[in-house]
Every structure is written in structure tokens, then in C-alpha cells.
Design brief:
By secondary structure, the chain is of the alpha/beta class. It has 15 helices and 13 strands. The strands form 3 sheets. Strands 1-3-2-4-5 form a 5-stranded mixed beta sheet, covered by helices on one side. Strands 7-6-8-9 form a 4-stranded mixed beta sheet. Helix 7 links the parallel strand 6 and strand 7. The radius of gyration is 33 Å and the shape is elongated. The two termini are about 50 Å apart.
């Protein structure tokens, strides 16, 4: 059972990742859009919009069946237009009114007036004319796409997000209360949360979006972890704590800084590059290193990454730049490096480190 649930959690993480990557795709694209049946009772209403495409057809003409299918495909693509069909002989008054003498004939209406027409089964001509007229219309937002966008933003609003009944301070069901207690037990007391009781659209929509039918739902870094049972098992195995630690932005930054510092035996964080220093202190540090024989050293331009620039000050507990590191250990800034050079200690450090 545990393996099944863990596998289920993994599957749902992948589903959520796919949702995240494709959340802007509307689910209605695969749905067959409707083509209205136009009659004398609704003709004025249907053709009164900004763009209405009407197919005058007859069941005895095989070309008409083809054009009916074309209309369905065009309706899928142009949600901002209305598509309809009318039996030319059964609704003879409408055919006469708009001078339709053969089938298939397609008329394009705008605000009740005929603005274009296609006679015969000319698919290419019809497609071009519909696209041309539809291009000037405002886009109609797909409700499902709008909901998916909303859910995506909520899920990614914090590193840890819990969709629950009520709030962490006042849970409205036992499962939500226990999930809050579980998060607090692993040191997570400040996390994003959304009360699904306050928005039924989110409550129902998230079940489909995440393919997870119950609440609460826990997300970390935009990926679905699962419900209470999954979270409990992951806590017991230590996996949840690992995920939370890796999801911590400060932990991620510290890992990045450590990797940069250890990327070279001698590493200089400076403004600019050794070839083009962007401040006098950085230029003199480069010269100093050259003087002690260090011509091939790692370097990072702090001007291109403010996260590194600000984060390294805290990580190293050193407020200024340049910063010199040897074998992953902070040497200091320019003044310290100069003193170490004058005493011969810097040369000895570099030689010792190199020999080591």
C-alpha cells in the first residue's frame, strides 16, 4: 500500500508539472464547438453579432456535408465568431432575402449586414475570408484557460502552498487541521494557504487540474505532493523534510554560492572580469594575484547577478567586494590580501594549497 501511494504521489507530481508547463493550453480546444441551426425565429439574433458565418445547405448536396464539417473546424479555431447553418429550401424566405440561389453558399454577417460571401465548396476561400474578418475581432478568453491560469498562480504563490478547508489558525475539518499540525511538526509554520470553502470554482477546478479528488492538497515548489496520507508517509520516511529543505529559497541560494566558491581552487568575486575590472579595488586585487603568480584563477562578476552579490555578503559574513577564496575558504578583501602578501603568508597559502 505504501509503495502504491508513493508511486501515486510521484505520478501526480508529474501530472502537476505537466499542468504547469501547459497550463495556458485550453482544454476546450479538443471539444467540438457547436454550429447553430439558423431559422426564421432566430435569424436576427444570430446574424446581429460582430461576425456570424452562415452556411446555406441542402441535404441532397454532398458538397454541403463537406462544408458543414469545415464549419465545425472553423468554429473550433475562432471562438470569437458565431457559426450557423440553414436549410436553404426549408427556410426559403431567408434564402430569398439574402439572394441565395444555390448550395452550398456561405454568407458572412457583421451586425446584421452581409459583409462577404463564398459560393460553392471552396474551402480555401472560406477559410481565408473567415480568418480575415475574425482577425479584427477581440479575443474571447476561454473560461477554462482563465481558471487554469488562476490555479497555476495560486499553486506557485509560495514555496509551500496548502489548499485546505479554513485557515491554519481555524481549520474547518480534521484532515486540514492534521495537515497543518504535520507541517508545523517539521518546522514549517509560515506557508501559503487557500481556503477552498471561499471559492467553489477553485475547489472544483483544482480537482481536475491536479487530478486529485480530495482535500487538503499540499504543493511544494508548484508540484503536487498529495493529501494527508501521502504527506504522513513522506514525513515518516524523511522525504518530506528533504523536499522542504531543498525548496527553501535560502537553502537553494546557499547551495548555489557554495558551488560557485568551490568551482576553482582560487576564486575571486569581483566587479567585472580580470581582463576588464569595473572598479579600482577589483583591479588592484587582480594585480595582486598576478604578482604572487596566480594568473589562472576562477572569477565571478557580481554585477551580473544581484542575488549572488547580496547573498554572498550574508553567506561569508563579509560586507564588501572583491572577496577572495582559496580552496573554498574565505581569505578576505583587498586589505587582508595585501597584508597577507606583505607578510608572505598569501604566497605560502597558495603554494601550500596548490601542493596539497
Amino acid at each position: 500500500t505504501t509503495n502504491n501511494k508513493q508511486q501515486q504521489s510521484t505520478n501526480h507530481k508529474q501530472l502537476t508539472t505537466n499542468n504547469k508547463q501547459h497550463h495556458q493550453l485550453s482544454t476546450t480546444k479538443n471539444n467540438k464547438m457547436s454550429v447553430e441551426n439558423l431559422t426564421s425565429a432566430n435569424v436576427d439574433t444570430l446574424v446581429g453579432g460582430p461576425l456570424t458565418v452562415v452556411h446555406f445547405w441542402a441535404d441532397w448536396a454532398p458538397q454541403c456535408q463537406q462544408m458543414n464539417e469545415v464549419l465545425v473546424e472553423l468554429a473550433k479555431k475562432h471562438a470569437n465568431a458565431t457559426f450557423a447553418r440553414v436549410e436553404a429550401e426549408a427556410e426559403a424566405d431567408i434564402s430569398v432575402k439574402y439572394n441565395v440561389g444555390s448550395v452550398p453558399t456561405i454568407l458572412l454577417f457583421s451586425n446584421g449586414k452581409v459583409v462577404d460571401r463564398v459560393e460553392g465548396a471552396n474551402v480555401l476561400e472560406l477559410t481565408k475570408k473567415v480568418e480575415s474578418h475574425a482577425a479584427s475581432l477581440p479575443e474571447v478568453e476561454d473560461p477554462q484557460k482563465a481558471l487554469n491560469d488562476k490555479l497555476y498562480k495560486l499553486i506557485n504563490s509560495s514555496t509551500v502552498v496548502l489548499f485546505m478547508k479554513g485557515s491554519p489558525e481555524e481549520p474547518k475539518c480534521g484532515f486540514s487541521r492534521r495537515m497543518v499540525e504535520l507541517l508545523q511538526s517539521v518546522g514549517i509554520s509560515n506557508f501559503g494557504h487557500f481556503n477552498i470553502l471561499s471559492d467553489n470554482e477553485v475547489r472544483q477546478g483544482l480537482k481536475t487540474y491536479s487530478d486529485w479528488p480530495t482535500y487538503p492538497q499540499l504543493y511544494i515548489n508548484g508540484e503536487l505532493v498529495g493529501g494527508l496520507d501521502i504527506a504522513k508517509e513522506m514525513k515518516e520516511s524523511g522525504e518530506l523534510q528533504t523536499m522542504l529543505k531543498e525548496a527553501d529559497p535560502q537553502e537553494a541560494l546557499n547551495k548555489k554560492l557554495k558551488t560557485l566558491i568551490e568551482s576553482n581552487r582560487v576564486m575571486l568575486f569581483m566587479k567585472g572580469s580580470p581582463e576588464e575590472p569595473k572598479c579600482g579595488f577589483s583591479r588592484r586585487m587582480v594585480e595582486l594575484l598576478h604578482e604572487v603568480g596566480a594568473t589562472n584563477f576562477g572569477h565571478f562578476n557580481i554585477l551580473v547577478d544581484d542575488e549572488v552579490r547580496q547573498g554572498l555578503k550574508t553567506y561569508s559574513d563579509w560586507p564588501t567586494f572583491p572577496q577572495l577564496y582559496i580552496n573554498g575558504e574565505l581569505v578576505g578583501g583587498l586589505d587582508i590580501a595585501k597584508e597577507l602578501k606583505e607578510s608572505g603568508e598569501l604566497q605560502n597559502m597558495m603554494t601550500t594549497k596548490e601542493d596539497a
